[in-house]
Amino acid sequence: MITQNMQDKESNNLNSISIGNVKIHSNVVSAPMAGITDYVLRKLIRKYSKDCLLTTEMISSEALVQREDCHIVKTDDEEIPVSFQISGHKPHLVAKSAQILADKATIIDINMGCPVNKVMKATDGCALMKSPDVAASLVRAVKEVVDLPVTCKFRLGINQNCINFIDFAVKMQEAGAAAICVHARTRVQMYSGVADWKRVSALRGEIDIPYFINGDIVSVETAEQAMNDSLADGLAVGRGLLGNPWLPAQIDEYLKFGKKPEEKSIEEKLSVLKEHLDAEIAFRGELNGIKFFRKFYPYYIKGLRGASEFRGRLVTEENYEKIISILQEIKNA
Ligand SMILES: Cc1cc2nc3c(=O)[nH]c(=O)nc-3n(C[C@H](O)[C@H](O)[C@H](O)COP(=O)(O)O)c2cc1C
Question: What is the pTM of this model?
Fold first, then answer.
């Protein structure tokens, strides 16, 4: 059961959440993942969940202002509500990017949590947690030029000696952020160690805007626990989406109605794998689509009989017909 504390919150409940003037009829967000949550995967997630908030991959403001029509910004009306995530540290570029994206986006999100060295060196991503004034100036700059809610996604802090997410959240709210999402790890942890959901509960009472909990939510049970521990208004699912595009819908149904999901059959998993692969091929062309898709096979076939041998063959295969025949072998195994 979700604690009463959550259900009693004034403007948000387990059926919907208000982010600025946008009402989302779900508490579940698909987290941004570069190279993963492309147009194709988002559409697949949407097929199962008509209400969850989708998020794009991180879009570099430096790159977008040079080239506005890259495939990363592709979307369509079926995706709505969709949050477009921008990275950068220069207010004029981040604001310009938000303007470019404004007619496609329901919400503009700013990346303040990416831990990778290249991004940190550019003083983007989680490096912004070291410069809250710069981070706040990005929120203000976007708000000045677009009439959409602006949100921020960040971490607990840079390391265990520098946990500043509460002050940082307050500052982003003051700058005009309509919601925040906290990945309950530090920058130094990258993606390992356990997400500290309980720690994030300290935000309750410190800010008035909704906050989302993120990190290690991979099932309906972990979703419920993360919500209870963090006292958050909603949650964002990242890696749990891999091979599991139905997870946001399952979490949503569980949080709203207590409905436990049924295990997907091998046939269903393989059929969705093929649907995902075919859509990537349609989006990127045959060879690029096949190569791009390699990262997804392990997740879709995990736990199936002979998975490791099949995985080895699938991730090296470039011929579509041969891939389909390996999928048939998996079904018959
Ligand atoms: C491959 C990969 C790419 C990611 N790309 C982004 C990104 O573009 N923007 C972002 O804010 N977070 C990004 N993240 C972080 C996720 O959104 C999420 O915060 C993190 O994976 C923790 O959640 P999880 O345990 O549910 O995966 C990425 C994570 C992974 C694994």
Answer: 0.95
pLDDT tens, residue by residue, 173-207: 999 999 999 999 999 999 999 999 999 999 999 99
Identify the three-state secondary structure at position 126.
helix
- Residues 273-285 pLDDT 10s: 999 999 999 999 9
**pLDDT 10s digits, 276-312:** 999 999 999 999 999 999 999 999 999 999 999 999 9
Mean pLDDT on 77-105: 97
Encoding tokens for residue 54? 């989708």
* Prior bond of 149 cis (ω within 30°): no
CB 195 within 8 A of CB 31: no
- Pocket flag, ligand 1, residue 222 (CB < 6 Å): no
Q: Which residue has the tokens 């990005």?
A: 138
DSSP secondary structure of 229-243:
HHT-SEEEE-GGGTT
pLDDT of residue 61: 97
Whose alpha carbon is nearest atom 5 of ligand 1?
Answer: 33
Q: Which helix (H) or strand (E) holds 18?
A: strand 17-19
Q: Residue 129 burial (CB < 10 Å; 0-12/13-18/19+)?
A: buried
Tens digits of residue pLDDT in 222-234: 999 999 999 999 9
CA-nearest residue for atom 16, ligand 1, is 238
Q: Which residue out of 29, 33, 110 has the highest number of ligand 1 atoms within 8 Å of its CB and is therefore the one to mutate?
A: 33
Least confident piece of the model among 14-23, 24-33, 313-322: 14-23
Token output for 134: 């710069």
Active-site residue flag, 52: no
To 10 degrees, the CA torsion angle through 5, 8, 12, 16?
100
Measured in angstroms, how far is the CA atom of residue 69 from the centroid of ligand 1? Answer: 24
DSSP state of 192: -
- Among protein residues, the one whose CA lies closest to atom 22 of ligand 1: 215
* Distance from residue 185's CA to the centre of ligand 1 (Å): 11
Nearest to 83 by CA among 47, 52, 120: 52
